[in-house]
Design a protein that fits this description.
The structure is a homodimer of 234-residue chains. The first copy, chain A, has 234 residues and is an alpha+beta fold. Chain A contains 8 helices and 12 strands. In chain A, α3 packs across α4, α5 crosses α8 and α6 packs across α7. Chain A binds a DNA duplex (30 and 30 nucleotides) through α7. Chains A, B: It comes from Leucothrix arctica.
DNA sequence: CGTTCCGTTGAATGGGATCAACGATTGTGG
DNA sequence: CCACAATCGTTGATCCCATTCAACGGAACG
């Protein structure tokens, strides 16, 4: 299911958005020393089990993961997708148990930080403390992001736009996206039927807003995609 | 619009859920000294203007507030309601500007904390730092709470159940609720038409799940209300 | 006393879910 | 290596839930 791998925050391309952001060079070594494990996972590997006790925060080093929440009725819901640089587990600080399971969507690598040690270190490193609060704050914004969408078109456009923006934030292409997740995962995440995803993607294609081939998407008209989200005017 | 009022965390009934949680007695005085202002607001007062620069966190001392977000198309959306003890502004730490406006729903009181000073203080007070992270983490959970609901019935039941739980958390009644907000505000918050709110409340009443008179609600059958949320089985 | 907003009710419409079927892809085991 | 199963993605037809439009009584307010 997983195998060890080398880690080194100093040379990691994601340090600009990940935990080390704002942390000084010398201090970085102390943060690095705290990374207990860096593990490789493969598609469908379950990394975190929902309800298990909270001990670690995780940072995505490469690949993609999804968070899946199971309710008392046995219904599954994808609560989020995690890209490289994302911090996972911030919501569990309060609840003390992980609120969802974490599953790899493709071959992916995860860095692991023990939270108690992180807290001890951040007490001595104001920059780390500040970054922890910033990331936690960012997570609140992410969670609130999808509240605007009313129609299925707006929901899906918002999802794609968001994925595009997050890609850009990481220095990846904002127009060339690889959807590592299935249509069902997308549907579950934004709260609609997979059939509707299909139909609206088709609609976007016939309007020349994007081209999609299997799980490779090319955004042709970012401006009209943004308008489709219902968040901006023409 | 607002007038000064006395503040004193030590004797505040909300210290068990508010910022002071976990903070020692002597340390509490230093936190108290940091409260710059405690102001009284009245219905419809705008306390925070969306997009204004982030400087302070706020804690609700009494009453109720709503957060309202305006998008580029001029559409308004209620993104949250704030009860006594709630911390407001945690999402703005990342964005550096407030992402929504804050409006009083009734005569209410707010405590104001300068964030920079709070950070300086928390560097010396691990308990305060821990509470800031806990509260931020809690906010992530709140934002994710409504993702489960599919139907209008589930959304509204979830909203009422949530309000009831938050009331209980504060030592108030979990069955006797005062809805300080309008039906339109509720509708905007959970993403449905105010007419539908009316119809489903009527349905809940004829099923003897609750009784509602103007803005006073009495929950008769919390168990069946929970089932209506679609989060639990019978 | 008129005006405005709030809350409710009725009737009609439509958007998205649901059900069903099918080809394509992936994965499995003999 | 291939037959088979299972999942994925798409398309079509139907239905139902929630929005929309419209109207009205009541309360709050100036």
């Amino acid at each position: 299911m997983s195998s060890p791998a080398k880690h080194n925050c100093s040379v990691c391309s994601l340090k600009k958005i990940c935990l080390p952001t704002g942390v000084g060079k010398d201090e970085l070594e102390r943060l690095e020393a705290l990374v207990q494990d860096t593990k490789v996972h493969h598609t469908s590997d379950e990394v975190i089990r929902q309800e298990s006790p909270f001990r670690n925060l995780y940072a995505v080093k490469s690949g993609m993961y999804k968070s899946v929440k199971l309710n008392d009725l046995g219904e599954e819901r994808v609560v989020g997708f995690h890209l490289p640089g994302d911090i996972i587990g911030l919501d569990a600080i309060y609840t003390k148990t992980y609120s969802s399971s974490l599953v790899a969507l493709t071959t992916s690598v995860l860095c692991q930080f023990n939270y108690d040690q992180l807290v001890l270190l951040s007490a001595k490193m104001p920059t780390l403390q500040a970054q922890l609060m910033r990331l936690s704050s960012k997570e609140i914004n992410i969670a609130n992001a999808f509240q605007n969408a009313q129609t299925a078109e707006q929901k899906l456009a918002g999802f794609i736009h968001n994925l595009s923006a997050r890609n850009a934030e990481r220095g990846f292409s904002s127009t060339q996206l690889i959807l590592s997740m299935s249509r069902q995962d997308i549907a579950s995440h934004i709260g609609m039927a997979p059939e509707t995803i299909s139909r609206i993607l088709k609609q976007f294609q016939s309007n020349d807003i994007l081209i999609i081939n299997k799980r490779e998407m090319k955004i042709l008209d970012p401006a009209r995609l943004l308008i489709s989200t219902g968040c901006a005017h023409a």
